[in-house]
Amino acid sequence: MRPVALVTGGTRGIGLATARALAGEGFDLALCGRREEAKVSHVLEEIRARGAEARYFRADIGTSDDRVRLVARVRSSFKRLQLLVNNAGVAPDVRADLLEAGEDSFDRLISINLKGPYFLTQAVARWMIEQKEQPGYMGAIVFVTSMSAEAASPNRGEYCVSKAGLAMTARLFAVRLAGAAIPVYEVRPGIIRTDMTAAVAGNYDRLIRDGLIPQGRWGEAEDVGRVVAALARGDAPYSTGAVITVDGGLTIPRL
Ligand SMILES: NC(=O)c1ccc[n+]([C@@H]2O[C@H](COP(=O)([O-])OP(=O)(O)OC[C@H]3O[C@@H](n4cnc5c(N)ncnc54)[C@H](OP(=O)(O)O)[C@@H]3O)[C@@H](O)[C@H]2O)c1
Q1: CA of 1 to the centre of ligand 1 (A)
Q2: Ligand 1 atom closest to Cα of 62?
Q3: Whose CA is nearest to atom 44 of ligand 1?
Q4: Ligand 1 centre from 76 Cα, in Å?
Q5: Ligand 1 pocket, residue 17 CB under 6 Å
Q6: Alpha-carbon distance 195 to 209, whole Å?
Q7: Which of 71, 82, 98, 221 could form a disulfide with 17 if both were Cys (CB 3.0 to 4.6 A apart)?
Q8: Structure pTM?
Q9: Which of 18, 32, 34 to mutate for ligand 1's pocket (most ligand atoms within 8 Å of CB)?
Q10: What is the distance in A from the centroid of ligand 1 to the CA of 222?
Q11: Is 245 in the pocket of ligand 1 (CB under 6 A)?
């Protein structure tokens, strides 16, 4: 039977590129997002055309009830889950200076980018441990964080804090699940061309032209998806807790 991956925010951007790459590795896909299913049916069709089963579960991962319902629906629908990709995330609606930014945006980002994946992973990890009873079962968990887990941007402090917390979440689950042979990885993208960066694309174009990124180009969603698929294949079994940067060398300290 084909393994199943749950990719949060899997119908566009990095999540969609990840879903496509996982379909290519033989996974069936459970995708979640905020939009209604009618808006993403073309995405499901496209993934099915690659030979994978694809089902959509509308859920706001920042809401406790939605997370519980999401896991229950994936469970009753697929009966199995081998991979969780915690990809869904949001940027602040407005980039505001650290001395001005308000609490609403902070609370929103912490609940979607940090609390959501933290408790979703808790629920999924319990289910994965149950599934270990089945012979040959292999589970794995990936967190998509950001270079903002480390790089300080005072015009979006709440995003940086949420991603720094998510990086620690990946490490915590790596330690907790090591004994259950469930590897946990952190994939840390740099500047990736998606809807999230569209509003600031001109700014990044200029910075990239001026040499910000050693590899000299934007990251594409596929650059991240291919890394997640490589981890999902099981080729890094002794690397739990590893942080894999996908940033064209942007975060290499330089002189
Ligand atoms: N783009 C970058 O440069 C970059 C760099 C570093 C890290 N990242 C991280 O990579 C991840 C994906 O980013 P992206 O650039 O692909 O963003 P994107 O194009 O804006 O897509 C975000 C996805 O997350 C889903 N999502 C957002 N809030 C959600 C919620 N509350 N519940 C469920 N799903 C939710 C969205 O669902 P809908 O489609 O239904 O709205 C969408 O599918 C994020 O965690 C982001 O922080 C991105």
Answers
A1: 30
A2: 31
A3: 89
A4: 26
A5: no
A6: 21
A7: 221
A8: 0.98
A9: 34
A10: 14
A11: no
Structure confidence at residue 198 (pLDDT): 97
- Residue type at 248 in one-letter notation: G
**Alpha helix segments (H runs only) across the chain:** 13-24, 41-48, 64-78, 103-109, 116-131, 157-178, 195-198, 201-209, 221-232
79-102: pLDDT as tens digits? 999 999 999 999 999 999 999 999
For ligand 1, the distance from its centroid to the CA atom of residue 99, given in whole angstroms, is 26
Domain annotation for the chain: domains and CATH numbers: 4-246 (3.40.50.720)
Ligand 1 binding pocket includes 15 (Cβ within 6 Å):
yes
Q: Which residue has the tokens 């509003």?
A: 199
Tell me if 170 sits within 8 A of 185, measured CB to CB. Answer: yes
Q: How far apart are CA 112 and CA 82, in angstroms?
A: 23
Q: Ligand 1 atom closest to Cα of 148?
A: 6
Looking at residue 60, its amino acid is D
Handedness of CA 217, 185, 106, 74 (dihedral sign): positive
Indicate the pLDDT class of residue 19, thresholds 50, 70 and 90: very high
CA triplet 152, 116, 193: central angle to 5 degrees?
Answer: 50
The crossing angle, in degrees rounded to 10, of helices 13-24 and 41-48 is 20
Non-local CB neighbours of 63 within 8 Å, separated by 6+ positions:
111, 116
CA separation for the pair 244, 224 (Å, rounded): 10
| Residues tagged active-site | 159
